[in-house]
Amino acid sequence: MSATTQTDALVVEGLSGGYDRFDVVHDIAFRVGCGEAVALLGPNGAGKTTVLRAIMGLLRHRRGRIEIDGTDVVAAPPHRIARGLAAMVPEGRRLFVGQSVEDNLRLGGIRLRGDRARTEELLAGVFELFPVIERYRDREATALSGGEQQMVAIGRMMMADPALMLLDEPSLGLAPLAIADLSAALRRLREQDRSILLVEQRVDIALEVCDRIYVLSGGRIVDEGRASDMGAEGRALIDAYLG
Amino acid sequence: MLQVLLSGLTVGTIYGLVAMAFAIVFYVTKVINFATGQLLMVSILLVSGLVKLGLPDWLGIVTGLVAATVLGVATYFIAVRPVLRFDRFSFAWLVSTLGVAIVIQATFALIYGPASQPFPRGLHAIPVRLGPATLTVQEIVTLAVGLLAIVGWHLVRRYTLLGKLGKAISTDPEIASTVGANVTAFAVGAFAIGGFLAGLAGILVGPITYGNPYLGDTYGIFGFIALMIGGIQRPAAAMGGGLVLGVLSIAANTYIGAQASDWFPFVLVLLVLLLTPNGVFASGDQLRRLFRTRRAYQQGVNA
Amino acid sequence: MKRIIPGAVALAAATALALTGCAGDGGGGGEGGEIVVGGIAGTTGAYGAVGVAVINGTQMAVDEINAAGGIDGRQIKFVWDDDAADATKSSQLFQQFVSEGAVAILGSPDTGPTTAALGDQMQIPVLGAVDDGGLTVYPNGPDEPPFAWTFSTSLNTFAWGAKIADWAIANCPGGLAMLHDPTTYGLGGLAGFQMSLDAAGKDFVYVESITENWGSGATVNLDAEIQKIVDSGADCVEVWLTPGDEAAFMQEIASLGLDDLVVLGNDVTNADATFVDLAGPEGDGMISALLTSDVYPNERLQEWQQKYRDLFDGLEPGPFAELSYDAVYILKQVIEDADGATDPESIRAGLNALTDFDGLTGSLSFTEQIHTTINKEQLTMVQWSFDSKKWEPIE
Ligand SMILES: Nc1ncnc2c1ncn2[C@@H]1O[C@H](COP(=O)(O)OP(=O)(O)O)[C@@H](O)[C@H]1O
Ligand SMILES: [Mg+2]
């Protein structure tokens, strides 16, 4: 057992889990340091979403050790994990239908409902990062463009002010211009010393935003390294994994 | 005319409260609690029984409401949670909630016997003249409760974060849980509110229909029809469906014939399902779409 | 009376309860062995108390006869089940009991049209509480022949209708209105009224048919009907409805201050305590007819009623228990008169010839044309007094 230091936002060890009692991820181990941004790369169906769901508590069948900010959450329900430990931008955004942009954001921060000042501060932070969506705060969230919706989804996650931020393929389905905005926003989050676990298919975004990367394939971690060490060969290797 | 409207609204409020009980449970859990009508019956019969034993009316009423609420929650834990835990998309609750309905009904039939029991007349004994129409105080209270339920629900849903969280659970329980919603707690709350509303409907209609173990069928079915008329997606619309059903049934009785209220509700529900499949109050979209396609079709024909 | 079960729940519940009922285990019957008698009654549902009374009264007679040595030395085997007021269930039970060797079927007070029709079809005597007489026994009206195999000792809607109508003709100068249940039960009452009205050359000022919740006991909103009755100018109204709706009607007109309207009931209004319990003080003044033998019970009936209370934990006896008790003794007498023959034709012949049988419910007779024992001459008009808690005779 490796000793957990206070510098780790997330420690995963021996994690296995899946759906209907069939494991799709096996014996996963990795960590995200405090203030570190880590990318989880891998081809379609590798199990990236499954790992994120396990961390967020959404995967019913999961075993091993998942420690967020020093707390073991492998048996905790999602609403417990949501109390300051982790927050997530889910695959496909999944904004709350029929509710305004502002309501979506405020729902993201509902765990802080007792602390009005903190909530307003966080909301201001979101609007500062994404000035576009402040203009649309009263619009129905799902009526926005894909890029704007992704901003709302990220904002919703930020509103929880979590110890660990989980993002599942935020670039998926976005126009090139929106992707550039997105990666700028992610870099700014990174600069705010947030601890981030980013799942991506776009290697360039991952390398731009993250300190370290893990490569997942067939439900197992098959490679890891520092983003800065990734030379041309390294990228070629990842690209090979991604197929 | 005024009498028809007022009588219809009072009857409709009862149907509407039962429909709302169905709808709030469905809103949060996507489950229809087929024991809802039986919860109405439980509150009526408990009041009848306790008052007969010599308890004051108010204590009987409080007990009846508490029992309906508790039984609503028990239904969740006995018949809904286990089957959904086993398979989140299972429809086994269709059978399991119906099973709860049968057990509740059979139990009360065993305890009380099949005959109807008197219910304290209370406020129903006091008539109030409103121009050409006459209502009782009980009926006026019923109308007020209906209004309160609809306005209260609207305010909670629209203007409180808790209401918005409930709406979020309604549309995407999984993501709602990732922002901190305890979905189980909300489900328990929904079954509790559903039980309470059904119990409340029972207290309000008790002096009119008396206590009988088999009442759950009649009011369950009419509440369900009101739900289909108003639209299952929105609890406030379910209350609207009850009012429409109540007024049109009484109007049909008055202007078509005494037996019209038997078949009329079913015709009404068929019409509603054909014209606006999500209920009359679902949103204007359905109707608009209907007319838009008609217009597009005619333009196509004319072109 | 016919009850309509409105929902799947009621059906399923009734069936569930029926499973715990007391269906016989088959066998028996046959010459020299036990005499099997089948019983069908709705013992569940909002008005299941009637079915319970029928079964209790029958069981009491069967136990007495068996204890005293049976019929011609043969024991009676009484097999019964709850039909839940459901015609399909009733016909299944009928055929089941016949296949178990039943020599006659008693009942049903809830699916009489079914048992009466099956009696003719299968040529098996049907006896006792067959709905409430009337159109159930005379499907084509009072002037046409009855079902050949059905012999009702039950309350008779023709008799109650005609009796109450006679009173109304004499006491309601402003006119008579009627609300009635649309089944053979309510239509039988209507036919009874029509007989007396036609004879007097009169007619209703207002008649309406109201569908009732016999199964769930829920009341029906009668506001619109009350308005129409008031508009018709009637000073008397016959409410041939469920006891629950009769009670609700009384309370509603009290709320409206319609104190002068005279309200008339039917045979079930006073067959048990349901109406008076529900109506409370507002039930005061309700008028109906009662078996004269129940208004002025003789010593024998009083003793019998006490015995009934002792046997069934203080349950109040009523006409349905009494007339079902009578039916068993009628069957006994008919079989004994035929020297123990239990074939259907002998029993039917014996029933058609029954004359002045001395029953709890009066002196009872059948003929080829008359297949109901109770007629209007056996009834007395009564009025409910809330103060004395009694149906007081008013003639
Ligand atoms: N809800 C589910 N039920 C059953 N199997 C699933 C479900 N979701 C994903 N899987 C399976 O799990 C494996 C990993 O999926 P996922 O974690 O979504 O991959 P990735 O996010 O890397 O594309 C795939 O083989 C997929 O078919
Ligand atoms: Mg994925």
Characterize the structure shown.
Chain A has 243 residues and is α/β, with parallel strands linked by helices. Chain A has two domains: 1-85 and 162-243, Rossmann fold (3-Layer(aba) Sandwich); 94-161, no CATH class. A six-stranded mixed β-sheet of chain A has the order 6-7-8-3-9-10, with helices on both faces. Helices cover 36% and strands 27% of the residues of chain A. The longest helix of chain B has 30 residues, at 57-86. Chain B has a single domain (2-302), classed as ABC transporter involved in vitamin B12 uptake, BtuC, CATH 1.10.3470. Helices cover 77% and strands 3% of the residues of chain B. Chain B is built from twelve helices and two strands. With 303 residues, chain B is mainly alpha-helical. Chain C has 395 residues and is α/β, with parallel strands linked by helices. In chain C, strands 2-1-3-4-5 form a five-stranded parallel β-sheet, with helices on both faces. In chain C, helix 2 (48-67) runs parallel beside helix 12, helix 5 packs across helix 6 (184-200) and helix 12 (319-337) packs across helix 13 (344-352). Mean pLDDT of chain C is 88; it is low at 1-31. Chains A and B meet through helix 2 and helix 3 of A and helix 6 and helix 7 of B.
Secondary structure tally: strands of chain A = 10
Oligomer: heterotrimer
Q: Averaged pLDDT of chain A, please?
A: 90
Q: What molecules are bound to this protein? A: adenosine-5'-diphosphate, magnesium ion
Average pLDDT metric of chain C: 88
What is the name of the CATH architecture of the largest domain in chain A?
3-Layer(aba) Sandwich
Most strands sheet of chain C? 5 strands, parallel
Low-confidence stretches of chain C: 1-31
Q: Which band does the percent of strand residues of chain A land in?
A: 25-35%
Under CATH, the topology of the largest domain in chain A is which?
Rossmann fold
Number of helices of chain A: 9
The greatest inter-chain interface is formed by: B-C, 48 and 51 residues
User: Gap between N and C termini of chain A, in Å?
Assistant: 34 Å
Features:
heterotrimer, A: 243 residues, alpha/beta, Rossmann fold, six-stranded mixed beta sheet, four-stranded antiparallel beta sheet, 9 helices, globular, B: 303 residues, mainly alpha, ABC transporter involved in vitamin B12 uptake, BtuC, 77% helix, binds adenosine-5'-diphosphate, binds magnesium ion
